[in-house]
Amino acid sequence: MADCMQEWPEPVMRVQALAESGLSAIPRCYVKPPCDRPVPPAAAAAEAHQLDRELSSDDVCIPVVDLGELLANGAAVGLGSAVTKAVAAACREWGFFQVVNHGVRPELMRAAREAWRGFFRRPLAEKQRYANSPRTYEGYGSRLGVQKGAVLDWGDYFFLHLAPEAAKSPAKFWPDNPGNCKELSEEYGRSVVRLCELLMRVLSVSLGLEEAHLQRAFGGAGCGATLRANYYPRCPQPDLTLGLSAHSDPGVLTVLLADEHVRGLQVRRAAGEWVTVQPVRDAFIVNVGDQVQILSNSLYKSVEHRVIVNAKEERISLALFYNPKGDVPISPAPELAAAAGAGGGPAGALYPPMTFDVYRLFIRKKGAKGKAQIEALKGQVLPED
């Protein structure tokens, strides 16, 4: 790992501690440039009314895909099946979709989320025992990226490696309290990884590829899974900052278990407007990452998303990132690169081969930068710094 990834460039402030200190104005390092701020307070009421109206309309809500029939039948994924068609349409039009009847027990989902809520409610001194560093990111964190003087996000997190077994975070990184946190998280991780493997099959077929193509191309059984528990405290000036800056996810798939009460995730549409996601009860929110955009030769695109915060309520979510094996070169599938007009562009591979380890290191240095990382790949080698 590069020298700049050894330690954080400045002392780390815990956002939760700031929020609970009673401050009336956020520190300058959390204030976003005007172009990156959410809707200003004067427009908040109108925006909320408009959002409620929009969320009642099927043409604005992100698609919901029911996996029940596919799981019940246990059959091969068909190109003409309703599930495959729905996922294909969602990936082309949104890059995001929700899944219901997905095979993960609702009680396990709720228990895992509550276990991590319990951790963030522990005393600060106890949580500090798990303070992370940019060497691995494992543990309790409050910033992404290592650029000195960067504008920070209003949120804390806990990051862990779940799979494969050889890469799993050692016991020292797992919190002791709540006592069931590790057991629940591991069971939850195994269940969500099975869901990811099913979605990989559906994505492959939806792209006109062999059912096992994506899984094999991304490293087979060597694919990785990481978990990030996100905690977004109340914020006295939510119009000036974000819980998580706009970005696309670097991996293959992200499966998000959102807060059951508080909305916060926003998805950017092609025209540039931000849509706030209304989670369906006991559903997962799924989005394709940069590696799917690369392998599909931009037929399916990863989409910018961000998290807003509010002054009245805290918010917690669990994000499981399904990633390629780190040392496997990823490039567009030859069948898709050869197809004229794939993704609206010319025939030919749009992206050079690159391992996920190299790509992820670049992102960790730079932090969240919208779609800049994936766009930097087109037609050239990714910059080293």
Descriptive overview:
It catalyses: jasmonate + 2-oxoglutarate + O2 = (1R,2R)-12-hydroxyjasmonate + succinate + CO2. Its cofactor is L-ascorbate; Fe(2+). This is Fe2OG dioxygenase domain-containing protein. Belongs to the iron/ascorbate-dependent oxidoreductase family. With 385 residues, the protein is of the alpha+beta class. The protein is 30% helix and 17% strand. The protein contains 12 helices and 14 strands. It has helices spanning 15-20, 41-55, 68-73, 82-93, 106-120, 124-128, 181-206, 213-217, 290-295, 334-337, 356-366, 372-377, and strands at residues 64-66, 96-100, 139-141, 156-163, 224-232, 244-247, 253-257, 265-268, 274-276, 284-288, 305-307, 315-323, 329-330, 354-355. It has an 8-stranded mixed beta sheet. The two termini are 13 Å apart. Residues 41-49 and 51-59 have low confidence and may be disordered.
